[in-house]
């Protein structure tokens, strides 16, 4: 007995679930660091030399760290289901298969990077690299969500090429802001464990650099929003840029308050969530600068599939 084919609506829901899972792992990973549980499981892939899982001797930190490792399987399930749906979807959508495959491969890669951070005792540069995998996967997940809402044909620009490049530059600036934020964190107090080394850089100087990059990003976004309105871009693209600006301003406000109040854990966690949402919105703006119609070849595949079931 063959399983029923997934519908386009199911594919969309699974793509959204994969996006939410990748955003969620950013928040839970931040919780591990903010609670000082980064070395709660002192080795990898086992939790300790004696056990694959946590045990009472490791205390609450072991439970938190091992719990975050288990959540990786939840991300794998969400992404894996989206991948399976993309494989079985008709008409065939090679673009959805490629994007979901990247996400699927990203899960074990992210896990290995997490293992390296433990084995290097939370080296701040390794922690930064580990973190930056998440925004990359979030951006891919956003593209996947967008593609499930349109056809599989060739992309058709909805804005002038200069405006699209500006959107891409804003996305690149978002990644620069996020990486600078990880370097600031590497010089600050929330190391993830009392034994973890710091990068030895000046926190005040790095915070100023991070703020300067935020100002640059906000400026690019304001310019992009004005350009979208001036060129008559579709409402979808203008709304995305408006939301991006709103998220950036909110994120900047949280960042300023947390810096002025000596980095309280709750605000730092909220700032991490905001970072994930910011990169998602920046990617959504980019994908909103073009659209795709139905692929004639895909329609032919669908016709053949229907004939085969007659």
Can you give keywords for this protein?
mainly alpha; disordered C terminus; two-stranded antiparallel sheet; 310 residues; 9 helices; 2% strand; flat
Shape by Cα distribution: flat
Strand content: under 5%
Going by helix content, strand content and strand pairing, the class is mainly alpha
**Secondary-structure element pattern, one letter each:** HHHHEHHHHEH
Topology:
Layout: H1 8-34, H2 59-88, H3 94-119, H4 124-147, E1 155-157, H5 161-187, H6 203-230, H7 235-260, H8 265-287, E2 290-292, H9 296-309
Antiparallel strand pairs: 1-2
Task: Summarize this structure briefly.
Helix content is 73%, strand content 2%. It has 9 helices and 2 strands, in the order ααααβααααβα.
How would you characterize the overall build of this protein?
The protein is an all-alpha fold. It is built from nine helices and two strands. The protein folds into two domains: 148 residues, no CATH class; 138 residues. Strands 1-2 form a two-stranded antiparallel sheet. The longest helix has 30 residues. The two termini are 17 Å apart. The C terminus is likely disordered.
